[in-house]
Amino acid sequence: MADDVTERGMELRRKMFGPEGAEKRVEAASDFIRPLEDYVTRECFGDTWNRGVLDHKTRSMITIAMLTALGGQGGQIRNHVKGAIANGVSKDEIREILRHAAIYCGVPRSVDAFKNAESMLKEMGLE
Description:
Layout: H1 4-17, H2 23-28, H3 34-47, H4 56-69, H5 74-86, H6 91-105, H7 107-123
Helix pairs in contact: 1-3, 1-5, 4-5, 4-6, 5-7, 6-7
């Protein structure tokens, strides 16, 4: 049986990414990847994302900026754009985060992030 932290993590994953990014992703994980999924659910979404100091919207905005700084992380940016929308970040705010990142992280990283963000926004019917 899952503990409270794990349950909070699954609840947030479900809110941000839907069932395909929560239960279905965990259930589909191989024996090799399952420990990582458990860690992400518990430590990332169950603990870190649920600390009371920053709200989920702010954490989403910071996450998009950090992923851009790391060099695109295309699939992760796509996922976190979806999660950001669920957490109340607007399309305009996402655009502004990526525009701001161009100055501090570099234009090539921002261009890649813009492309991945736009792809997810289109998939969500928001572009």
